[in-house]
Amino acid sequence: MNQQFQRPTGAFIGASWAALLIGMVTYMVGLWNATMQLNEKGYYFTILMYGLFAAVSLQKTVRDRMEGVRVTGIYFGLCWISVLLAVLLLGVGLVNATLSQSEKGFYAMSFVLSLFAAVAVQKNVRDLNSAGPAQEHAEISPGPQ
Fold first, then answer.
1. What is the pLDDT of residues 118-136, one digit of tens each?
2. Mean pLDDT computed over 33-42
3. Confidence category of residue 139, pLDDT binned at 50, 70, 90
4. Among 16, 51, 58, 139, who pairs with 120 as Cys (CB 3.0-4.6 Å)?
5. CB pairs under 8 A, 24+ apart, for 51-55?
């Protein structure tokens, strides 16, 4: 399956990276300033890292399948399970945490923003790689001879 992918715009690339950084940094600042035990902070940090890896891995396997690259069903299933497990673990942790509702919402929203942005960044990286080098000097190239 040979498909042509358009290069993502600079604005979309910038917005994707900005969303990823904003989501991750706000989540981490929240953990840094939280009045919870270090093991709890480690739990939430690990869930963020696991969720980001799982989301990127799932996006890659979905794209591989779309492009006709063979992906085993076991790995594809593990990617889905990992994303769902990361979200479930965050949810269980927040439901049982002794945090205010606004703090719980803060962690949930920055987590979801980070996962979504990680998928967008991975898509941009893949699209840029698939599109090949930019045609910056297309107007200078000679015409048909």
1. 999 998 888 887 776 655 4
2. 91
3. very low
4. 16
5. 51/83, 51/86, 51/87, 51/90, 51/111, 51/114, 51/115, 52/24, 52/114, 52/115, 52/118, 53/82, 54/79, 54/82, 54/83, 54/85, 54/86, 55/83, 55/86, 55/115, 55/116, 55/118, 55/119, 55/122
Look at residues 8, 30, 1 and name the one whose alpha carbon lies nearest to residue 129.
8
The residue assigned the tokens 């919402």 is: 105
Task: Give the whole-angstrom CA distance, residue 109 versus residue 107.
Answer: 6
pLDDT digits (tens, 9 = 90+) for 74-97: 999 999 999 999 999 999 999 999
